[in-house]
């Protein structure tokens, strides 16, 4: 998190903010309905990290963003040093975004057209799904500037007005999802709001449904699970009567909305609603058939299974994830396959299968290092694996420790 070293565990972060707020363990434990002994073990790392919904409760009581307890990265780093998140923030918070009346372009200024911009945005979406987050961050400032110019073009009217708004929605959706992935939850919400406003103007139900996914990502990243569930349910209710029952793009988007709502419901500890939403997503996947990648959803039976496994992990059903999690994901986009390997590694670590957990993390790292080395779940898992690993040469020469250092899980 910003201000604390990445090497601190979740428990150490809870203790840091509890002391900063002047709370005793007894007071904080009481606020979240747990015993003082439970909190003491959590802070000392003598039990599994608290569940995601409990972390959200702790964050509210401590008055800090959820990411500050989990330990989110600040910048994306890669071999090309494509880590300029501040430039993305500047593009989103430019004063020109505040008022078209005050800052609108001069009448003679030539503005971009939507088709070339759409091609660049879809290319950046390909980088996102390929795990090349640095390339996305590098492209976003210019893409966001172009999106603003397309909105200015749309304000002039014309036949391509709706297309301009649609490209802006896709651009801001990409920004929101990428920023949520790297822990920038505050500006992720700002980008999601812009995506949905542009989607409203596009008059295209599929554009709006796609943009709503960015809203659920941003809300989940901020620990607002009730709001994410409400957005998912409202989107599904609105979209269903507006699209054809056999439209594969609509089926894919509706299916992903159901899955995002299921994640939100699980993190709110509502098993009944979660089960219903997963069943609805499964029905849509069966209707669609084999998994496709319409609107970068990668929706299909495999993606439903991956979400089910992630949800069971959120619900602390570790045994289920260990039993069912060893599945082939090499055919999936890297963003999906690596996310699953990280979840599977966490489950394996929880049951003491450290060697297997480490192998999953190594596979993930070889596939998309940017998705691994800046991930707080990876850091927490590696800290557990370091504790489980036998001591060799002072404990600082093992492959596990080297990876832990590489990911800044230890000093």
From TrEMBL:
Pfam families: HTH_31. Residues 14-69 form the HTH cro/C1-type domain. The keyword DNA-binding applies. Gene3D superfamilies: lambda repressor-like DNA-binding domains (1.10.260.40). One of its GO terms (cellular component) is cytosol. The keyword Lipid metabolism does not apply. CDD domains: HTH_XRE. One of its GO terms (molecular function) is DNA binding. InterPro entries: Cro/C1-type_HTH, Lambda_DNA-bd_dom_sf, TransReg_Diox_bact_type. It comes from the Bacteria. Keywords: DNA-binding. This is Helix-turn-helix transcriptional regulator. It comes from Streptomyces coryli. The lineage of its organism: Bacteria, Bacillati, Actinomycetota, Actinomycetes, Kitasatosporales.
């Amino acid at each position: 998190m910003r201000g604390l070293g990445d090497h601190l565990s979740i428990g150490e972060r809870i203790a840091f903010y509890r002391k900063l707020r002047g709370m005793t363990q007894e007071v904080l434990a009481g606020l979240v309905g747990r015993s003082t002994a439970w909190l003491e073990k959590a802070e000392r790392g003598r039990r599994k990290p608290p569940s995601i919904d409990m972390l959200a409760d702790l964050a509210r009581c401590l008055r800090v963003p959820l990411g500050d307890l989990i330990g989110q990265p600040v910048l994306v780093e890669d071999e090309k040093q494509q880590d300029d998140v501040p430039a993305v923030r500047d593009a989103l918070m430019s004063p020109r975004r505040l008022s078209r009346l005050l800052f609108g372009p001069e009448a003679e200024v030539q503005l971009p057209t939507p088709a070339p911009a759409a091609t660049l945005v879809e290319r950046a979406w390909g980088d996102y799904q390929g795990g090349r987050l640095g390339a996305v961050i590098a492209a976003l400032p210019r893409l966001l500037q172009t999106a603003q110019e397309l909105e200015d073009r749309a304000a002039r009217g014309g036949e391509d007005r709706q297309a301009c708004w649609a490209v802006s929605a896709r651009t801001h959706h990409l920004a929101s999802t990428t920023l949520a992935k790297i822990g920038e939850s505050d500006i992720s919400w700002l980008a999601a709001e812009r995506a949905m406003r542009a989607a409203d103007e596009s008059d295209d139900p599929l554009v709006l449904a796609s943009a709503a996914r960015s809203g659920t990502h941003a809300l989940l990243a901020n620990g607002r699970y009730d709001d994410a569930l409400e957005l998912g349910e409202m989107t599904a209710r609105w979209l269903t009567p507006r699209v054809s029952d056999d439209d594969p793009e609509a089926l894919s988007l509706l299916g992903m909305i159901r899955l995002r709502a299921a994640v939100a419901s699980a993190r709110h500890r509502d098993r009944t609603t979660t089960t219903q939403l997963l069943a609805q997503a499964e029905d849509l996947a069966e209707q669609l058939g084999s998994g496709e990648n319409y609107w970068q959803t990668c929706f299909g039976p495999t993606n439903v299974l991956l979400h089910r496994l992630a949800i069971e992990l959120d619900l602390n059903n570790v045994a289920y994830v260990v039993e069912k999690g060893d599945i082939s994901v090499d055919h999936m986009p890297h963003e999906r396959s690596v996310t699953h390997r990280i979840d599977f590694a966490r489950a394996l670590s929880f049951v003491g299968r450290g060697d297997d957990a480490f192998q999953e993390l190594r596979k993930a790292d070889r596939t998309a290092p940017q998705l691994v080395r800046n991930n707080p779940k990876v850091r927490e898992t590696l800290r557990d694996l370091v504790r489980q690993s036998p001591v060799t040469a002072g404990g600082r020469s093992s492959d596990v420790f080297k990876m832990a250092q590489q990911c800044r899980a230890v000093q």
